[in-house]
Amino acid sequence: VPRESLTIDDFSDREFLLIVIDAYDADGWADSQVVADRLDLVNRRFASSRLSWLARYGAVEREHRRDDSGNLRWHKNGQPMVTQRWRLTAAGETLALGRLRKGDETALARLKDDHLLLVTRWLTQRSGLEGTTAKLVQREWRYGHARRDGRA
Amino acid sequence: MTAVTVGTVRPVSSSDEETNTVESDDSGSAERLRLQRVEHVTDELRELLAETSEHCDELSAQLAEARKRRDGYQRALRQLTGEESPAAAAKPKQKPDQNWVPSERRLAQVWEAVRARDGVFSVSETAAVAGVANDTARRALLALRERELVRLTATRGQGGGQRYAVMPGAAEREVNGAA
């Protein structure tokens, strides 16, 4: 049965971004229809909606439409014309493919419970700030807790 | 006494009366004899019934005693061998927990089977490689997904089943989260 929704509990941002990578064409862009088909969504707009939110958070970007000369095309209201193709930004690639450095991992693994509490406080303070990465951190946190609560 | 014939009434002769008297005496004694026999047989049957009932009671007591001894021996044997009692075995089994999660040992077994995979893999392929049941493999992959060791891909198998892939950079990690 095709999906009629696509929530963060269904697919984390990381999983979703990896699926976008899976859907890349030869030019390194993923058409939202291809993403929707791969996710068995009833309509491309469910994929486009998630992609739009991730674009706001800086994880993906949308392709701008260009003329034959390669110039950007613009709407009358001054907004650039866009296509239905998307790709990951550097921040998105870090979210999808990145990993902690070995030294960071080792240092975090050695943290004792009381220090873990302090680190968590520091992280929540930082992720409470405005900014695209902060929003992605909040979403990562939310998805992680959803999994542990058995909702994902 | 009169004998009825068709159309006339014939008087009963004296010889007929004699015969009837003798017959009457004979039938009376025969009836008494029959009653005596019935009484005799009834007495015998009552005795047999009493004896048999007594025998049944004895056998029942012996059976109860034998069952008691048997149950005692069975209990002792179960205590020594740890076998389940027939009553416990016959009890309707509880409905299995639908949300069970494979043990850490099983998760590690499944993870070892898939961690080196490059492409996508299905539940049944995982089950075959790891040597576990399909349901165990499916639940193990869900648990590994929660730990971000594997991810659900958008690729579906021929039967429409979901396919998984190892998370980028996760192959070096262990099931318990250790790197």
Summarize the SSE layout with pairings.
The complex is a heterodimer of chains A (152) and B (179).
Chain A: H1 13-22, E1 30-31, H2 32-38, H3 44-56, E2 60-64, E3 82-88, H4 90-97, H5 102-109, H6 113-127, H7 132-148
Antiparallel strand pairs in A: 1-3, 2-3
Chain B: E1 2-4, E2 9-11, H1 14-81, H2 86-90, H3 104-114, E3 121-122, H4 123-130, H5 134-146, E4 150-156, E5 162-166
Helix pairs in contact in B: 3-4, 3-5, 4-5
Task: Describe the protein.
The complex is a heterodimer of chains A (152) and B (179). With 152 residues, chain A is mainly alpha-helical. In chain A, 51% of the residues lie in helices and 9% in strands. In chain A, strands 1-3-2 form a 3-stranded antiparallel β-sheet. The two termini of chain A are 18 Å apart. The mean pLDDT of chain A is 85. Chain B has 179 residues and is mainly alpha-helical. Chain B has 5 helices and 5 strands. In chain B, the strands form 2 sheets. Chain B has a 3-stranded antiparallel β-sheet with strand order 3-5-4. Chain B has a two-stranded antiparallel sheet with strand order 1-2. In chain B, strand 4 (150-156) and strand 5 (162-166) form a beta hairpin. In chain B, helix 3 packs across helix 5 (134-146) and helix 4 packs across helix 5 (134-146). The longest helix of chain B is centred in the N-terminal third of the chain and has 68 residues, at 14-81. Chain B is rod-shaped. The model of chain B is unreliable at 1-9 (pLDDT under 50).
- Spatial shape of chain A: globular
Global morphology of chain B = rod-shaped
Strand content of chain A: 5-15%
How many β strands of chain B by DSSP?
5
> Numbering strands along the chain, what is their spatial order in the largest sheet of chain B?
3-5-4
Annotation field: number of helices of chain B: 5
N-to-C CA distance of chain B: 128 Å
Integer-rounded radius of gyration of chain B: 46 Å
Chains forming the largest contact:
A-B, 23 and 15 residues
| Succession of helices and strands of chain B | EEHHHEHHEE
Largest sheet of chain B, in brief, is:
3 strands, antiparallel
Mean pLDDT value of chain B: 81
Number of helices of chain A: 7
